[in-house]
Amino acid sequence: MLVIYKNTEAGLEEITEAVTGCWINVIDPEQEEIEQLVELGVPQDFITYALDLDEQSRAEKEDDGTLLVLLRIPYFQGAKMDVPYRTIPLGIVITSRFIVTICRLQNDIIQEFCSGRIKGLSTAKRNRFTLRVLLSTASKFLLYLKEINKVVETLEDLITLSSRNRDILELLKYQKSLVYFTTALRANELMMERLQRWQIFKAYPDDEDLLEDVITENRQALEMVEISSNILSSMMDAFASMISNNLNEVMKFLASITIILSIPTIVTSFFGMNVDLPVQDHPLAALFVIIISIVISAVVVSIFRRRDWF
């Protein structure tokens, strides 16, 4: 899908042909659309990098001044997926005439820009547009992090009541998501620092200040994700210890019951031997055997209780 947008007096509108100052949004393009981008002056490698789901964040610059800003953005796959939240690459190509965004999958960040709800957005201000995308990405990381924390709190309550494997595996899914977030935010930070060293946004003081805000927001998102990841890791370790302790308690209880129930068997087996035994001719011999079994069992139960084994 290839859609061209441009700011007009009525706001952000779709146009049919690429003109100076427009924004070309490309989502999972077909071969014809890729060829169209190449004809407009977008390097083939830049398109390939942005469509590779495993590509890492970085910035590259061609001799003619064409700039590629490749960043990892958060992406929600679905609560039932093995990894509900992951990251995908988003390529921003800045040419002398227009700006191009390229992504393999439809995502919330680009949809928000396409909706026209972003105030003060101008497709003609290519550097400012890029910085707004970077800022929106950092904010989206924080938004998704809040959603993850809510789910984790719910799962924590469920695991406290009943330690089921299904709830533990659910926590593991969100722990994976946080690992993806941490890796992406670190790579994005390195990419932004490189842009800052290149002084690409130094022409306008507002752009330079906005870049500082973007870096600060990204660092805040990274710190928050790392804190949540550490808390979740500690929580997983604690729940693993709880499950192990619960299993030990169950095994200890069952072992105690087994020992107690084996005492009457031992006593009756002793009195069941075909040899002369005390009180074997007494009319209450059977009652004596039962009393002896109960007394010994009671003593063992008392010992187990004092040692907190039962």
From TrEMBL:
Record's GO cellular component terms: membrane
Membrane topology qualifier: Multi-pass membrane protein
Key words, A-Z: Membrane, Transmembrane, Transmembrane helix
Localization (cell): Membrane
Taxonomic superkingdom: Bacteria
Residues spanning the membrane: 253-272, 284-304
Pfam families: CorA
SUPFAM superfamilies: CorA soluble domain-like, Magnesium transport protein CorA, transmembrane region
KW Transmembrane (keyword) present: yes
GO MF assignments: metal ion transmembrane transporter activity
Family the UniProt entry places it in: Belongs to the CorA metal ion transporter (MIT) (TC 1.A.35) family.
The name this protein goes by in its record: Magnesium transporter protein
